[in-house]
Design brief:
Helix content is 36%, strand content 16%. It contains 10 helices and 9 strands. It is globular, with a radius of gyration of 23 Å. The N and C termini lie far apart (54 Å).
């Protein structure tokens, strides 16, 4: 007991000295943007960090962003996956617009594939959205449709413009707009066109767990695009067979996006989450 009572003041003194030294030298807390070199604020914090909102594409769900979610949460970001019912741009953008209206502070809005069409519509007029990130995505101008942006692009979806059953399994759904049905990508088309670059077993699982897209979504026109007023970033998979790289380049250059190209297919957000996360972090840095 005597030895313990004699040493304890030394332990306490050493701890106090360490605290004092840390106070003098400043916090060593690493930045949430450590990958990109953004430094902590003088008080050791990181300012008003944005909420990262992720929008999935058609024939998918929010789990397609799992790799990015884990990485962003590990850096302390609030990450939210937005609703995307795949009923058509007017309904889907309305859902997203209302969802975004409940978030306080700056927002980085990242979207994949058809989700880019939805996000560009929904973010217009929302002053909290500070950055857009398009990941193998559509970025339409006002009045453009998915059909128009697909035509002549060489997309694996292009044959559906003349023969929908060559690409889709068509299924009726309750309350559908006149002439609309749910479309599911045929298994072979999905595996070879959407999931190229992924392991075969993973591609097969994604093919049978896909969600539907209402066919009216392909013909509904875009409204005023958010990329005309909000800075944009883009990730383009050079092996994308759904939205071929040349078509993406046209849209992203028109949007003035900062473009990153990766050696991936349409599902680069699944196969290359590190690279996609880095682009999202780059966009997030502009909000601090």
């Amino acid at each position: 007991m005597l030895g313990i009572s004699l040493r304890r003041p030394k332990v306490i003194a050493a701890a106090l000295a360490a605290v004092t030294l840390a106070t003098v030298l400043g916090s060593g807390t690493p930045s949430v943007f450590a990958d990109g070199g953004v430094q902590p604020t003088p008080d050791g914090g990181h300012g008003d960090r944005p909420t990262i909102v992720l929008v999935h594409g058609a024939w998918a769900d929010g789990s397609s962003w799992n790799g990015e979610i884990r990485r962003l949460q590990a850096r302390g970001f609030d990450v939210q996956v937005a609703p995307q019912p795949s009923r058509g741009p007017s309904i889907d953008s309305g859902y997203l617009r209302d969802f975004l209206s409940t978030i306080e502070g700056p927002i980085v809005l990242a979207a994949h594939s058809y989700g880019g069409f939805v996000a560009s519509d929904a973010a217009t007029g929302n002053s909290n959205v500070k950055a857009l990130v398009f990941v193998d995505a559509f970025a339409p101008d006002k009045g453009e449709t998915v059909e128009e942006l697909t035509a002549g692009s060489g997309s694996i979806l292009e044959p559906a413009l003349t023969d929908p059953t060559s690409v889709f399994r068509l299924v009726p759904f309750p309350g559908a707009p006149e002439g609309a049905v749910d479309a599911y990508v045929l298994r072979k088309v999905f595996i070879n066109g959407f999931a190229n670059g992924l392991p075969r077993r993973q591609a097969e699982v994604l093919a049978v767990t896909q969600t539907a897209l209402a066919t009216n979504a392909l013909a509904e026109p875009a409204t005023e695009p958010a990329w005309k007023t909000i800075p944009a970033w883009a990730v383009i998979g050079t092996e994308d067979r759904v939205i071929p790289p040349a078509r993406q380049e046209e849209m992203m250059e028109r949007a003035g996006a900062d473009i990153t190209r990766i050696d991936a297919g349409h599902l680069g957000l699944i196969s290359h989450p590190d690279q996609v996360t880095r682009v999202i972090l780059e966009a997030a840095r502009t909000t601090t």
